[in-house]
Amino acid sequence: MEQITVHTRRRKTWRRKPTLVALSCGEDILARYRELSFREREHLTQAGFTKNQLVSLKNTMGIDYDTLAELLAVTTRCLYLKKGNDLFSPNTSDRIASILELYCDGLDIFASVAEFNTWLTTPQVPLHNRRPLDVAKTHPGLLKIRERMFRERIARL
């Protein structure tokens, strides 16, 4: 008797519960995200961020899609193909949340988003003359940036 193996291809779909907490794109995404509790942030990350929310963050950061794609470890094409309210995958949403957390910490140290953006794009000697934004592409890089920010906070006291 012959055995027949049938392989079917399943399409990946991201079906998740609707978010209890909504971050609209028109408002300042950083200010709203900073107001959320830990539970709300966790739920928002699990439910997924939308393309509109990511575009709002991109505009706040003042970076292009290529740099953003490198930070999120996805292709630029992936970012362009998403439509307004399409959700990102759980892994990408987690990376978006990491960047939002980094910015929230940065705003606690620096006077404004513009000053923090300048700090992120200025090469630093402890990072081997690399920009913090370039180091942020990996998890160890994000940890190193947080360490540098902590030292910056102490220096400013």
Quick description:
The protein is mainly α and 157 residues long.
How would you characterize the overall build of this protein?
The protein has 157 residues and is mainly α. The protein has one domain (29-156). The chain is built from 9 helices and no strands. It has helices at residues 29-35, 38-47, 51-61, 65-72, 76-81, 90-109, 113-120, 132-135, 139-156. Helix 2 runs antiparallel to helix 6 (90-109). The longest helix has 20 residues, at 90-109. Mean pLDDT is 85; it is low at 1-7 and 15-20.
Key terms:
disordered N terminus, globular, mainly alpha, about 160 residues
How are the SSEs ordered, and which strands pair?
Blueprint: H1 29-35, H2 38-47, H3 51-61, H4 65-72, H5 76-81, H6 90-109, H7 113-120, H8 132-135, H9 139-156
Helix pairs in contact: 1-6, 2-6, 6-9
* Helix vs. strand class: mainly alpha
Number of separate structural domains: 1
Helix content: 55-70%
Task: Supply the number of helical segments.
Answer: 9
Task: Provide the low-confidence segments as ranges.
Answer: 1-7, 15-20
Give Rg in angstroms.
18 Å
Largest sheet: none
List the helices and strands in order.
Answer: HHHHHHHHH
The beta-strand count equals 0
Mean pLDDT: 85
Strand content: under 5%
Cα end-to-end separation = 79 Å
* Oligomerization: single chain
Global shape: globular
